[in-house]
């Protein structure tokens, strides 16, 4: 399957993507994670991306599209993928369509996670991520690690993202509404959008997502 996951910052895209990708046996491709990996390796791309991410803005399309294309062309993505955080505006969605069409492929679904803004803010404020693996995501209230500051899965150090400060989150939400939400209409025109509520326990949301993808509603 080829799926796009869309939703505001903090909706739980990364959390759900980890489970959905496993259930569906497809790789989880997160442009945010790819940028953060470049930042931690101090690459030129990482240095460029950091300046935009810290301000809550989108990284320019040219570099983002090239990076996403390169990742989607890896052998493990041949049979499908779950895109998390890409596309993030209409020109990225158009570029993705072109990429897929040139390979004779198409998307199966766009899964839209709906969460009220006050919940998004609570989720982001308490989020803690493992330094060893960005798929190890915790929350200081909703998903507490057994030991403060230590990842349950690998013992790695938990940290708070630089772009999770209150001001930057506000900016990221604004960017989501103005630039990313329009892709939902873009994909509605292709009859691809499946909307679910992302409220409730993590496993309830995963089940809701799996059911909705099966039904295709
Ligand atoms: P990115 O990394 O994609 O961030 P985001 O879209 O802002 O999303 P988040 O990672 O903040 O949230 P999430 O929805 O994954 O939530 P999570 O699962 O962690 O992008 C970061 C930046 O990179 C962008 O601002 C931009 O600069 C750049 N970028 C990335 N892609 C780009 C692109 N295509 N073009 C241009 N620039 C791009 O969950 C949040 C918290 O809630 C966690 O603590 C979790 O434990 C908790 N939680 C999750 N589910 C539940 C639940 N059901 N109940 C209670 N708590 C829950
Ligand atoms: Zn870990």
UniProtKB/TrEMBL annotation:
Pathway: Purine metabolism; AMP biosynthesis via salvage pathway; AMP from ADP: step 1/1. It catalyses: AMP + ATP = 2 ADP. Signal peptide: none annotated. GO terms for molecular function: AMP kinase activity; ATP binding. PROSITE patterns: ADENYLATE_KINASE. Its EC number is 2.7.4.3. Its main location: cytoplasm. Residues 127-163 form the Adenylate kinase active site lid domain. ATP binds at residues 10-15, 127, 137-138, 200. It is found in: Cytoplasm. It is an enzyme of class 2 (transferase). Keywords: ATP-binding, Cytoplasm, Kinase, Nucleotide biosynthesis, Nucleotide-binding, Transferase. Residues 30-59 are annotated as: NMP. GO terms for biological process: AMP salvage. It comes from the Bacteria. GO terms for cellular component: cytoplasm. Monomer. Consists of three domains, a large central CORE domain and two small peripheral domains, NMPbind and LID, which undergo movements during catalysis. The LID domain closes over the site of phosphoryl transfer upon ATP binding. Assembling and dissambling the active center during each catalytic cycle provides an effective means to prevent ATP hydrolysis. Catalyzes the reversible transfer of the terminal phosphate group between ATP and AMP. Plays an important role in cellular energy homeostasis and in adenine nucleotide metabolism. HAMAP family: Adenylate_kinase_Adk. Belongs to the adenylate kinase family. This is Adenylate kinase. It comes from Streptomyces minutiscleroticus.
